Amino acid sequence: MEHPPPLSLVLPHPDKLSGEALSFLDGNFEDLRDLLLRASNLTSHLKHDTSHLNDRLLHLRTDLTKHAVSWISTSLSAKNSLDDLRLNLESLSLVTSLPRSKDAVRKQREHELQQLVEDLCRIQNRRKYLLTVLKLESLVGDLEDSVFHPMRGRSMLQVRVFNHAIKTMNEIEHVLGDVTRHHSQWRRLVDTVDSRVDKSLSILRPQIIAEHRTLLSSFGWPPKLALSKDEGGEAASGIPNPLVVMQGDQKESYSQSFLLLCGLQQLNTLKEKRKKLNKESIGAGLWAIDELVIPVASRMEYHFVKWDQEPEFIFALVYKVTSDFADGVDDLLQPLIDRAMLVSCSAKEAWVSAMVQMLSCFLEKKVFPGLVEMVKEKKSEGVPSWFHLVDQMVTFDKRMQTFVSSDTCLSYEGSSLGMSVMGLFCKRPEWLKTWGKIELKDAYRKLKEDIKKEKAWEGTRLGNESNSESAKYVLSTREDYKAPFVAETFLSRTWTLIDHGLTLPTVLPRIQFVRATATKFLWYVFKTLLLEFKKSDLSDYSSFEDSLIQACGPINTARYLESKLREWSDDLVFVEMWEAETNVKVEVSCHGCFFGEELKSLVELETNWLMEIITVCLHQFDNLCGDHFHNNVEPWEEEDVSQGVAEALDSLRRELAVLQLNMNRKDFLDLWRNLAEGLDHYVSCKFFAGEAVLLRRRFEVDAEALMMVFQPYCVRPAAFFPRVREILRLLSMNEEEKARLRGALSRNGSSCLGLFGISNLSPQLVEQFCRCY
């Protein structure tokens, strides 16, 4: 048996081989021994590739034949259309040459020209359609050649193929975008191309991702999380960053792979924009950075599971890893993002967002479900664990906000949904509702304890120490409003609920939470104020002054709450929330601000309580003075006030002094002015309901004494008793003036009363006075 000739005799001399053949052999074989071992395998692979390429060539020939037949058919159709057009033009020339009326010729020409235009447009549309089909077929065929051609091992050739495929898909996407915008009737063409491109993409994307993950693993990603027991499980400082230590070919390979993923994401964005897919932007960061986070998450979850009862360690570890690697990510990947021309994209923010979303996903899947069950089953540790976890989430978000905004001019609010672990409540509204119920129930419990405190309803008494009259009514603090200590508690509890809601990253969940907690809590506060006011028994005249002091507490509290709610409503945060709520609701409050309904109710409570006090004061005044304003039988000296009137005025003076000392200035101002108006009406009615003959001097003395009661509160008290003032004017008239008044009334009626300085008394009362006096 003969031995085969040596391999050196079988192979051609290297000088006789082309450069491509030499590169091929050098790329597949290291030495002669490697050639002997792998030659048969290479031969089988080449035969397989050749067979695949032959099949592909046959497929292309078949497609070319089909398109050629379609093109010939379309060309014949176009030729027939042009022949019809030529015949129509010849007919048009014959028709115009016949002796017909001008109108008939004009109508015939218009009809023929319209048909001509329609035929030309139809031909042009068919031409555009065919050119578009041919262009798309060429691009899609090129894409399928790149994607379905088998490639083994990583090489620069493979990277070039991936880049070429992505570039081709971008060109296809631009063509489809143009078709979608200008030729919506070509929907079937778009759907067909989309189907073929998606099939190629379903093969290409896993290959690129797999290659990227292999690269990450090759240079030691993810890093080991070295933990220090001394720090309670927090990550130790100085964790090495593999991204920073990459050099040479390894760094170049990662850069190419990163750009490939960015290219795929840009393509995906274009497709979604064309298809107008309204997807949630939560967690929609950079795919390449997400690939960095995925292996880190799998390694960190091991520690998370051990700390399910100690969430502070979980948040500390995530913050530590995020901050330690942020600079390396920014230094390496930001230039690559700029090369990929990703507009308004920050590597650091994308890294932070991906880490936050990783933590949010863990909480959603592993932590909150068990916590929700504990709360529903009313276990004792459920609510405290919930509060502790939420506090840790809020603190974590604030730390991340500070970290991101520390060296960037970009606003945290712009991407807060992706960078906030509190965004979990925005994704799970049922958990937001559960949180709101827990917070509201806890606020109710604490409020009941606050109300029971001994000095809860004790207020602050201030004198009129201000030198400026206008400054007396510029109120800001609880002391200025003379509100009891519990008023500050009401506000602090309410603001705590609001502040918790403001930690949510989006507006609508904020509104939902604030309405479910702070707003309901305010209504409970209003009910508490109403019950407290009812405790002051104003009908008991024996302790009337003490009842007035007790009634001032809820009145001052209501006024203080009203001022703070108006102040909050003017804040930009609540203005934005009010606008957002108005836009999404069909029926909303028409009171013009976020706390409109609450302010309306507060004002109604204050008004009703003040009117109740005024009513009781008027009843007591009436009980004390009786008919003394028109009783001529009672002994009376000319310069003295009637005994009954003096007693009533003395009681009124004491009540006003008590109210001034214990009630806030604004409500006291409204109260004494309305009380003066009521007394003015009361006294004038008593005057005209009296006997026909009345001691003039006696009424003047009593009326002057009544107005002097209000002298400490205004410069001209007579201005607040317009009816009594006009009665005194009538009484001061001499007989000649009364005669002129009677004559003017008989001639001109009520229109002449203004000439005599009378505008508040009716003409009937003036005529009654003229008859009696």
Structural features, described:
There is one protein chain. By secondary structure, this protein is mostly helical. Helix content is 72%, strand content 0%. The chain has 26 helices and no strands. Helix 10 (311-339) packs parallel to helix 12 (382-405) and helix 17 (507-535) runs antiparallel to helix 18. It is elongated, with a radius of gyration of 46 Å.
Concise synopsis of the structure shown:
It contains 26 helices and no strands.
Give the integer mean of the pLDDT values: 82
Q: What gross morphology would you assign? A: elongated
H/I helix tally: 26
Percent helix, as a range, is: over 70%
What kind of oligomer do you see?
single chain
- Main sheet overview: none
Classify the secondary structure makeup into a structural class. Answer: mainly alpha
- Taking the alpha carbons of the first and last residues, their distance comes to 161 Å
Q: Give the low-pLDDT segments.
A: 227-236, 410-415, 463-468
Record field, number of beta strands? 0
How big a fraction of the residues is strand?
A: under 5%
Sequence of secondary-structure elements: HHHHHHHHHHHHHHHHHHHHHHHHHH
Using only C-alpha atoms, the radius of gyration works out to 46 Å
